[in-house]
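Q: Given only this backbone (330 positions), what sequence would you predict?
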């Protein structure tokens, strides 16, 4: 009589055990040096850059990006991509504002918002993992759908948020002088990093992103892991939508036009491979810091938005080239 052994999640190799703290290769050193360089540049060019007030402003404005980039890291590590995060963040902020405005209690409104993000993620994941549609196409379609729904349910106008308890929880609080939204963002990065580093799900994400066929042969369902990754990412994007709504005191269509590009840029600049299976949230955190400092510094120097897009695009291309060179050497 044959004995069937239960499927096991593949054991991480020696390199994967060091994911929480990235190795100091060119893909890690370059963004760190870049962050130092742009920080010094803006500090020299603008006296306001190093002020406490600007530091707090930087944390508040970067919170939605940090949370969204953590979500994007999960998706990209699994070998996929999500182009819908910007419109979904705007949509969930509008859903929250409308739900709260309809008299729904705060906790329930937050729950509805997070469930909306999870549902969007489930649709993206189902289309990609089980429908065979490339994530680039599926999430590009969701980008348009979420954007359209945002305009429809908001009546093409801003939906105000006036709940004082919500602002106290998501915006006004300053534990130890640190904006609460910044604390939420840092906590999210740490939590997602721990999830990917120390859980079976995290190891499965790396295994699927590295080699989906080998993962399937080892007993890991790549489709299920990708679906779970998209659902978790969608929930996190909804959380980013709450942070966005708190900062703007409203929900409105196209509230975060650069969020998708910035989130992808942060992940890639940090050194996570677009091919999946290699990278970490620690790397993404460096990328988030670099993008946040660039955006903040551009604002202080009144740099034209089109110029900002151009510079960020160049940085993404350079980051991908560095990743390719690093991969070729290794």
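A: Predicted residues:
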């Amino acid at each position: 009589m044959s004995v069937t052994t239960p499927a096991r999640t593949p054991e991480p190799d020696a390199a994967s055990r060091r994911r929480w703290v990235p190795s100091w290769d060119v893909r890690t050193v370059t963004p760190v040096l870049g962050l130092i360089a742009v920080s010094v540049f803006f500090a020299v060019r603008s006296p306001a850059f190093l002020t406490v007030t600007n530091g707090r402003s930087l944390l508040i404005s970067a919170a939605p990006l940090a949370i969204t980039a953590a979500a994007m890291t999960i998706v990209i590590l699994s070998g996929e991509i999500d182009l819908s995060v910007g419109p979904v963040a705007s949509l969930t902020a509008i859903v929250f504002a409308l739900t709260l405005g309809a008299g729904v209690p705060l906790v329930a409104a937050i729950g509805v918002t997070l469930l909306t993000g999870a549902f969007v993620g489930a649709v993206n994941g189902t289309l990609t993992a089980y429908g065979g549609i490339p994530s680039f196409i599926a999430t590009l379609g969701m980008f348009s759908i979420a954007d359209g729904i945002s305009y429809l349910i908001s009546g093409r106008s801003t939906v105000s948020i006036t709940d004082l308890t919500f602002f106290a929880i998501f915006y006004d609080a300053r534990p130890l002088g640190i904006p609460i939204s910044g604390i939420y963002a840092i906590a999210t990065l740490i939590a997602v990093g721990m999830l990917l580093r120390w859980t079976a799900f995290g190891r499965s994400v790396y295994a699927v992103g590295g080699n989906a066929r080998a993962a399937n042969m080892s007993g890991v369902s790549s489709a299920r892991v990708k679906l779970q990754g998209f659902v978790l990412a969608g929930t996190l994007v909804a959380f980013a939508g709450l942070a966005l709504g708190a900062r703007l005191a409203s929900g409105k269509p196209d509230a975060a036009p650069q969020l998708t590009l910035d989130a992808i840029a942060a992940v890639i600049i940090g050194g996570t491979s677009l091919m999946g299976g290699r990278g970490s949230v620690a790397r993404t955190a460096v990328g988030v810091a670099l993008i946040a400092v660039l955006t903040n510094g551009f604002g202080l120097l009144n740099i034209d938005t089109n110029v900002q897009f151009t510079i960020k695009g160049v940085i993404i291309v350079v980051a991908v080239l560095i990743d390719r060179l690093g991969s070729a050497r290794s």
